Amino acid sequence: MNRRDILKTAAMLPIVAGAGFISVSAKTAARPKMIKPNRLRPGDTVAVIAPASGATPEAFERALANVATLGLKAKVGKYARGSKDHLSGTDAERLHDLHWAFEDKEVNGVWCVRGGSGAPRLLPEINYSFIKRNPKVLIGYSDITALHMAISQQTGLVTFHGPVATSELSEYTKTHLVNSVMSPPANYKIQPSEYNLAQASALFKPLVITPGKARGRLIGGNLSLLSALAGTPYALKDVKGAILFAEDINEPPYKVDRLFTQLRQSCDMKSLAGVALGVFSSAQAATDAETAVTLRVLRDRLGDLGIPVITGLSIGHIRDQFTLPMGIEAELDTEGATVTMLESPVI
To answer: What is the CATH number of domain 189-341?
Structure first.
């Protein structure tokens, strides 16, 4: 190739590169059609599995008691009681139980024992086509956010960001779980917990960052997991017109700042319809000064989106928590600090 050919080729590179970039960005996978699972009914069987970290024997017994409290029967996964370092088992073992739970014809729903860590490791190996053909209620939060995000995006299945099986099922938490997966009322409105409102920390109090009402499909989960999924096939992508909910625990203000900055740079948050934040709680009581910084960070990172934003809703690593169905249409009202389900999440 002579010098003239080289210069001609070089001149074409920006055009070719630009064209390539445009074609790649335009290839956005269509959102799958929504699939609603059958509602759970008294006497139904729930698979109890541990797709992330494991539970202590005492906590596992509480999980079984919680299943019984709802009038359901438990069927324990083969490896659900296991322990391997920070996980409940190997990737193969945890994946086995997840697939088994959706395959077993006796099982009507799937309740994850706890979050912790490790669920994202399973995402590339999940048989999404199989889950799509066998839709069931899937419940959990924290690290289970990874499963919600991936299964929702790959199959369209409505899944439930709610208590894990080892959670303390307060009357508030139990009521909202039942009203989501068993007997959802029409236009079900979820209001903040009185118990949470009575807590000393300002993080438990609803705080309106930008007032207004928003309607859209619910997406979200644990902030650390949403951030960790950025750059993967399971990341927040198609967010236009959606209501994003997020929560986290034990994250200092600078990390909350970093996590939201990651999301802002990896998806178009200004195209959201609204943002509903839970309680950014701490295992140890945060100082008033640290709490104030966290709230300032939330204002700084989300206050310029031009959409309704509220923090302090009853979502997250707290005793009283909402159950939020991923993918259904809902309404966020910052004035009343409420989330209303505009359609049933189950059939």
So the answer is: 3.50.30.60
pTM: 0.91
Active site residue 125: no
Among 142, 167, 180, 281, the active-site one is: 142
Does the annotation mark 142 as catalytic? yes
| Given the residues 247, 251, 282, 314, the one annotated as active site | 247
247 labelled catalytic:
yes
| CA 98 to chain CA centroid, nearest Å | 17
The burial class, CB within 10 Å (0-12 / 13-18 / 19+), for 276 is buried
- How long, in residues, is the chain? 347
Note whether 52 and 144 are within 8 A (CB): yes
Domain with CATH 3.50.30.60 in the chain: 189-341
Superfamily of structural domain 45-169: Murein tetrapeptidase LD-carboxypeptidase, N-terminal domain (3.40.50.10740)
- 29-33, long-range: CB within 8 Å, 24+ apart, which pairs? 31/153, 31/156, 31/238, 32/132, 32/153, 32/154, 32/155, 32/156, 33/156
Q: What are the residue ranges of CATH 3.40.50.10740 in the chain? A: 45-169
* pLDDT tens-place values along the chain, 347 residues long: 443 443 343 343 333 333 332 222 334 568 999 999 999 999 999 999 999 999 999 999 999 999 999 999 999 999 999 999 999 999 999 999 999 999 999 999 999 999 999 999 999 999 999 999 999 999 999 999 999 999 999 999 999 999 999 999 999 999 999 999 999 999 999 999 999 999 999 999 999 999 999 999 999 999 999 999 999 999 999 999 999 999 999 999 999 999 999 999 999 999 999 999 999 987 666 788 899 999 999 999 999 999 999 999 999 999 999 999 999 999 999 999 999 999 999 99
* Planar angle of CA 282, 285, 291, nearest 5 degrees: 80
